[in-house]
Amino acid sequence: IPIIYDKDIKKKLPNLLNYLYKVLPNNIVGITGTNGKTSVSWYLSQIFNLNKINASYLGTLGEYYNGKKISNLNNTTPDICSLHKIAFTHCKKGSNNFIFEASSHGLEQGRIEGLPMNIAAITNISRDHLDYHKIMKSYRKAKLKILTNYLEEKGTAIFNSKIHIPKKIMKILYRKSVKTITYGSKKSNLYISKKNKKFLLSINNKKYNLALNLLNDYDIKNLECSICIALAMGIKKKYIIKKISNISRPPG
């Protein structure tokens, strides 16, 4: 067996992995945030499952294919080799929709380097993991790498309208021809409001009645993010609205 030595193999890994795993899902979605990653991923995968569309999920709860658990994971975001291999395996099974949680550790350590991620979502950024990142500035920078370092050109960036995205990052997204979608407030692209015990879904100022079993504010915000991603992934709003009442919280 020929052996090739390299002093900096980490920089070569993305190219090697792209050579090994040529066939990957069409939609690869990375979701990050201090809170909400798991819920958003779970709600999103349920939207696919309820509409009988093949989808995969990878994160805190483990590895799932079409709503069925395959295995547990040692980390929220697996190592770079495992992540590529799992995405490839799921694609060969028939999943063109790959949803994964991107932790700040995973983003900082380049675990998603080379993965053709066309949709990136940020739920929120608050104080956490300072044992690793040391200061809030470093933690925030690690989270925002999902937009600056890993999101593909002409991709879609989805984030809570209450997150401050610096102008220099917005300029990077503009240069990469990235489409931005916001949620979380009346001025955003997507917003869920409640009136007289009824829920209204507003998409670019067009309103739709929504039947919901999830009532807490954090549930609603996570659901808004999930719907934004589902729309960006090509699911028609009528199919989302029809099945949304059947969505439940993630296990635990």
Description:
The chain has helices spanning 9-20, 37-50, 80-93, 104-108, 130-133, 136-150, 167-175, 217-232, 237-243, and strands spanning 27-32, 56-59, 62-65, 68-71, 97-101, 117-122, 151-160, 179-183, 190-195, 198-203, 206-210. It is an alpha/beta fold and 252 residues long. Helix 1 (9-20) runs parallel beside helix 3 (80-93) and helix 2 crosses helix 8 (217-232). The chain starts with 8 loop residues before the first helix and ends in a 9-residue tail after the last helix.
User: Which strand order do you get reading across the main beta sheet?
Assistant: 4-3-2-5-1-6-7-8
The percent range for helix content is: 25-40%
Structure summary, number of beta strands: 11
Radius of gyration from the CA trace?
18 Å
Largest sheet entry: 8 strands, mixed
Order of helices and strands: HEHEEEHEHEHHEHEEEEHH
Based on the structure, what is the oligomeric state of the protein chains?
A: single chain
Terminus-to-terminus distance: 47 Å
Beta-strand residue fraction:
15-25%
Query: Any idea what the shape is?
Result: globular
Q: From the helix content, strand content and strand pairing, which structural class follows?
A: alpha/beta
Average pLDDT across residues? 90
Number of H/I helices: 9
Uncertain residue ranges: none
